[in-house]
Amino acid sequence: MVAIAPAIASWFARPAARSWTCPPAPRHAVAAFHEALPGYAPTPLNELPALAAELGVERLFAKDESTRLGLPAFKILGASWGVYRTLCDHLGLAPDVPLSDLSGADVRLVTATDGNHGRAVAHMARLLGLTADVFVPDGVQPAAVAAIEAEGAQVARVAGPYDEAVRRAEAFASEPGMLLVQDTGWPGYERVPGWIVEGYSTLFGEIDAQLPGSVDLIAVPVGVGSLAQAAVTHYRSASRTPTILSVEPDAAPCVLAGLENGHPNTVATGSTVMAGLNCATPSSLAWPYLSAGLDAAVTVTDADVVRAAADLAALGVPSGPCGAASLAGARAALTTDHRAELAPVRTVVLLLTEGTAANPVG
Questions:
Q1: pLDDT category, 4, cuts 50, 70, 90?
Q2: What is the pLDDT of residue 362?
Q3: From its phi and psi, is residue 118 left (phi > 0), alpha (psi between -120 and 50) or beta?
Q4: Domains in the chain with CATH codes
Q5: Pairing of strands 45-47, 347-352
Q6: Distance of alpha carbon 275 from alpha carbon 273, whole angstroms
Q7: For the packed helices 201-210 and 27-35, what is the interaxial angle rounded to 10 degrees?
């Protein structure tokens, strides 16, 4: 594999993040819930020596989320736990009842999505015999919209960006009998996205069990920041202190802009093949974790991501553009002068958050 220097990227680094700590997620309860779902199995953690050699590290692993619980992305981990906890709360049930006890509840699930979260909520609605209404912004691939509809959801297309779709979903869910299950938080709406973030803890628990040793750098694709929040929570609540690298499209760098400015921002977004990361505003729930616990943040171009997806495919690992962003980000961090700003890196983990079926590269 020929190494090609990535394009000039925006970059932020804060070495002090490694000393920040936070309480852990309820990982064991969440993992037990997921293990009881039909078709659960840990997703593969593939070692890729060719990429390790390219990046100048000893070992590199890719967490392949392309077949998570029958769906082509990691989002079902958060959506399943989020839907379960939201329904238990709505029905006044303790969060220890079987999922089947929630079937047929007299509610409609509502969400906005760039693709994978909406499909996951729709999938849970179908599993429970419920109806889902999913608001989809401009820029989402037609195949991703069709997959949401195939789950039986009602899709409302929004002529605008992701943030507008979220506003539309929130307004729609204010009607009686509606439950909003959104994976981003804002003031006054943080409990449900908090449950969704807890759901992602299963992914990191699996990595701990699968990895032969410790991780020195983990690259996390970032939209509103919920998965990165889960990564920070997992690694900053224990003695593990890897470098946590957030990776965003250069067309939608909301987290990096906030880190540079010292407060959360809403940025103008553009077009990008990384549709699931095309977000203008970080989650208010995630922001305190990101601002304190991220070691570094980088932006990547569509060209870098398309090349990364092709390189992964050549190694037999399928990834859509959002997942491939993690490789593009690791390249930007480790094959440039930015590496000098990081702690020593021997082992890298890339989060390949979606497969090619979730969002085709192009």
A1: very low
A2: 58
A3: alpha
A4: 11-72+200-352 (3.40.50.1100), 75-188 (3.40.50.1100)
A5: unpaired
A6: 5
A7: 90
In the three-class reduction of DSSP (H, G, I as helix; E, B as strand; rest coil), residue 351 is classed as: strand
> Other CB atoms closer than 10 Å to residue 249's CB: what's the count?
31
Instruction: State the DSSP H helix or E strand holding residue 28, giving kind and residue range, or none if neither.
Output: helix 27-35
Q: Would the CA dihedral through 228, 23, 12, 312 be positive or negative?
A: negative
How many beta carbons lie within 10 A of that of residue 14, not counting itself? 16
Measured CA distances, 117 to 78, 194, 220, 278, 317 (Å): 8, 15, 17, 13, 22
Burial of 261 (0-12, 13-18, 19+ CB in 10 A): exposed
Instruction: Name the residue type at position 339.
Output: R
Amino acid at residue number 221: P
Cα separation, 119 vs 116, in Å, equals 5
Q: Over the stretch 115-125, which tens digit does the pLDDT of each residue have? A: 899 999 999 99
Q: Which residue has the tokens 């974790």?
A: 289
Report the mean per-residue pLDDT for the chain: 94
- Distance of alpha carbon 339 from alpha carbon 68, whole angstroms: 32
pLDDT for res 355: 94
Q: b/e map of 277-312 (b: 16 or more CB within 10 Å)?
A: bbbbbbbbbbbebbbbbbbbbbbbbbebbbbbbebb
Instruction: List pLDDT tens digits, range 321-352.
Output: 999 999 999 999 999 999 999 999 999 999 99
Span 39-56, pLDDT tens digits: 999 999 999 999 999 999
Tell me which amino acid residue 54 is.
E
Q: What pLDDT sits at residue 357?
A: 85
The sheet that has 154-157: what strands, in order across it?
154-157, 131-136, 108-112, 178-180
- pLDDT tops 80 at residue 210: yes
Query: Is residue 77 over pLDDT 60?
Result: yes
Q: What was the pLDDT predicted at 141?
A: 87
Interacting residues of 72 by C-beta distance below 8 A, sequence separation 6+: 65, 66, 116, 320, 354, 355, 356, 357, 358
pTM of the predicted structure, to 2 decimals:
0.94
